[in-house]
Amino acid sequence: MATFVLVPGAWLGAWAWEETARALQELGHTVLALTLTGLGERADQATRDTDLDTHVDDIVASVEQADLRDVTLVAHSYAAAPVTAAAGRLGSRLKRLVYLDSAPFAEGMRMLDLMPSDVAEQLSRQVADHGEGWRLSMPPFEALGSFGSLDGLGEEQRGRVRALAAPQPFGTFVQRLTGPDQADPGVDRVLVACNDFRALMDAEVPMLAFLNQPPWRRFDLHTGHWPMLSVPAELADVLHAAVA
Fold first, then answer.
1. What is d(CA 18, CA 13) in angstroms, rounded to the nearest whole number?
2. 227 Rama sector, left if φ>0, alpha if ψ -120 to 50, beta otherwise
3. Cis peptide leading into 82, omega within 30 of 0?
4. How does pLDDT run across 125-161, given as a tens digit for each residue?
């Protein structure tokens, strides 16, 4: 059985993994779902100084303080950025990297680089006008289509997200990655691709071509960008298969 550390994407906390974590535990796995600084139940810890490095430190500290070994580290969406940097600091504790509808960040990359320039500018204006210059509230669901497919998110799931989502410290989107993936070459690397990401992979987009080649292993999920909310049990089955 595996030891999973689940890292949520922007605006989310450990709460987003509840059903998937429960299903993995029922399958016999050890599961630690993280809430990064400034999000979820840690929303009151957010400051102007909360940035990408803060979240990298969160991940490393959580694994080390729990003295976890043979870790399968799962990064959903935005979490790909801090997980990429944390991977090199976890050393022999890390057994497997799983990028869930996401991909490793290159050194010097930042979250805003993944968005069309007009979307990035709109978010920056929103932070300046309504977020005291450092907090980004979760956009309306219509706008979230810029981040990924909403397939599978019904009214119940959307209501839960809207009620529990916390403003994202904008420094985590603005700061560029300074620690590239320096995980041991022997670390298992897995991609779990949902609808939009599957389409990009199947179209053989050049910048993602490496994900279709060894040592990467790919699993597909027929749902939108938030599978832990839209198909939590199916996601647990895929993660279980990835470590089997």
1. 10
2. alpha
3. no
4. 999 999 999 999 999 888 887 678 999 999 999 999 9
Rounded CA separation 228/23 (Å): 11
Please write the tens of the pLDDT for every residue from 168-213: 999 999 999 986 667 888 999 999 999 999 999 999 889 899 999 9
User: How long is the chain?
Assistant: 244
Q: Which long-range contacts (CB under 8 A, 24 or more apart) does 156-165 make?
A: 157/226, 157/229, 157/230, 160/229, 161/11, 161/12, 161/16, 161/226, 161/229, 162/138, 164/12, 164/13, 164/15, 164/16, 164/40, 165/11, 165/12, 165/138
* Number of independent structural domains in the chain: 1
Q: Which two tokens stand for residue 126?
A: 């929103």
Q: Are strands 3-7 and 71-76 parallel, antiparallel or unpaired?
A: parallel
Single pTM value for the model: 0.96
What does the pLDDT look like over 81-136, one tens digit per residue? 999 999 999 999 999 999 999 999 999 999 999 888 998 999 999 999 999 999 99
H or E element, residue 190: strand 188-193
Which domain range does residue 144 map to? 3-243
**CATH code for position 79:** 3.40.50.1820
The residue type of 15 is W
Rounded CA gap, 182 and 185, in Å?
8
Pairing of strands 168-169, 94-100: unpaired
